[in-house]
Amino acid sequence: EAGVVQSPRYKIIEKKQPVAFWCNPISGHNTLYWYLQNLGQGPELLIRYENEEAVDDSQLPKDRFSAERLKGVDSTLKIQPAELGDSAVYLCASSLGRSYYNEQFFGPGTRLTVL
Amino acid sequence: AQKITQTQPGMFVQEKEAVTLDCTYDTSDPSYGLFWYKQPSSGEMIFLIYQGSYDQQNATEGRYSLNFQKARKSANLVISASQLGDSAMYFCAMREGRAGNTPLVFGKGTRLSVIA
DSSP class of residue A52? Predict the structure, then answer.
């Protein structure tokens, strides 16, 4: 079974440029998460989707960040315009169902460097 | 207030020895789950072990065991017989509530280095 797929793995851009990250969750997983991981820190939630609905986006900086999950499958996270402080790893994760024990499966992440 | 605290920024262990990575948590919810993830230099987060707040016994998965002390709010990870491939960042995480799709809250991690 394929895991969570993310692309690109690495992205280098200049500040003020736009950038987009793509995530394909594990087939059938209805919950999708985007996490931000700064250097030397643990991941922090940016947004959570239940199918195509964003149900937890309080940590998403909406002035420059946007996300979508069309048809409840793939998801795209966009930053426009990027700032130096956005340099980090962006992790996508997915999970299935709402059972008490529910493992989140993570993708390899996209490492963004803003120059 | 920090919900997950990992006080050891870095740890060294000799190959084949056991090591304990500390994790304390803070929650007022009686229902919660505790997770440990491994993050190698390649970047992916690898699930290691899970402990539910109502579980009576400490969780074990192969060489990994979780020393769960509910009254002290600690969930330490024990790795037995360390291997060179265990060198990585280790993150403790918590999910509050009974819904399995609640996001995880992570600690800052501990970098484990296994020495030959």
Answer: T
